[in-house]
Amino acid sequence: MTFLTTREVEKLIRNGQAIPADARLTPGAQDYLRDHGKSPIAGKPAAAGAPANAPVAGIPGKKYDPVVPDYEYKWTPGTDPKTPEAIAAFFNSPPIVAIKNRMVDMGRRLWTKDYTDGNGGNITVRVGDNLVLCTPTLISKGFMKLEDICLVDMEGKQLAGWRKRTSECLTHIAIMKRQPLCKSCVHAHPPHATAFAVAKVNPPTCLIPEADIFLGKIATARYETPGTPEMADTVGEVGKDNQCVLLANHGVITWGKDVEDAYWKMENADAYCRTIWVASQLGGELGSGVGGNKARDFIKIRKALGMPDNREGLKECELCDNSDFRPGVLCQIPDAPPAEPSANPEIEALVQRLTGEIMKQLGAK
Length: 365
What we know:
With 365 residues, the chain is α+β, with helices and mostly antiparallel strands. It has 12 helices and 10 strands. It folds into 2 domains: 69 residues, no CATH class; 282 residues, 3-Layer(aba) Sandwich (L-fuculose-1-phosphate Aldolase), CATH 3.40.225. The chain has an 8-stranded mixed sheet with strand order 6-5-4-3-7-10-9-8, with helices on both faces. The radius of gyration is 27 Å and the shape is elongated.
C-alpha cells in the first residue's frame, strides 16, 4: 500500500498517470482531487482516489453522495505507542505527517492574516489518549516547517521533535483535559478580537448568525502570566464550555474538532469583533439584536453540528442581554411593557421636602 501526498498526486495527474487502486491519500491530496474533480484532463482519471461513487467526468447522471471534509483525527483508545521506537514511528507515520503539514499551513495562514507577530501564537492537535502535537517555542508561525512540530504528552512532557515545545501548550491541554470534544487549539493575537480582550469588553451576542453558530458566546478569562499553571487552570475552566475565549490583556484561544476548525473560529472571532467595532461607531441600536427566540435556532444548529453550547438553559431575554456591552441598553421580553424606573428614596424625600417648603411659602401669602 502506498501513501500519496498532494505533490505526488499533482505529479501523477500532470503526467496523465492513474492513481494506484490501493493508494491512501493525505487530507491535502484528497482536497486537491476534490478541487479539480470538475475540470479533469480529458480522458484521464482526475477523480481517482475519490470515493467509488464520486462523480466522474464524461459519465452523465452518475450518482454520488456529496461529502463534507472531515479532518478530525480519530484514534483507538488504549493504543498510544509506549516505547521510544514506537513513538518515533508514530510521529513519522503518514497520518501524523499529514496533520503536521496542516498545522504548518494553519501557522502560515495566521501569519498572513496578521494574527501573529514575531514568534507569537501556537497550535496543538490531540492525536491520542496521552499524545498532543504542538508548535515549538520562539518560531514565526509563518515560516514553520514540518520538522519543527513537536509531540508531547498530556502533562506537557516532550516525547519527540528536535525543537523545544511551546510553554503555552499547557493551556491548550488544560482545555483538552476538561473537554473531550476539544481536539485542537489555536492561540493568536488577532488585532480586533485582542482589542476587546485588552479593553475587557465581552462581544455582544445575537447580532450575526455566523458568529453565534460557529463561535457561540465569546467568553473572557481573567489575566494570568502566559505559560504558567495558573493561566492553564483559568483558561481551561473557561474554555471547557466556550469555543472562543478572550484572554484578558493577551489574545485569543479557540478550539475545535480539528486544526482547521479551530483556525476557522479564530477568523470568525476577529471578523466578528471588527464588524461589531465598526457598527458601534455608527450610533445605531445594537441592543438585543435578532431576539432570544431566534437565538434558540442558533443553539439548535450548533448542537446539530456537534458543538456544545452552555446557553441552552437560559431564558430568551438572557440569551441576548448585551447590557454589559452597551450599558443602559437592556434586553426586553417581546411585547412586555418597559420596566418602570425604580424610585430613589433620597430623591423622593428631597422632592417632598421642597414641595412642603413651597406650599408653606404660598400659604404665607
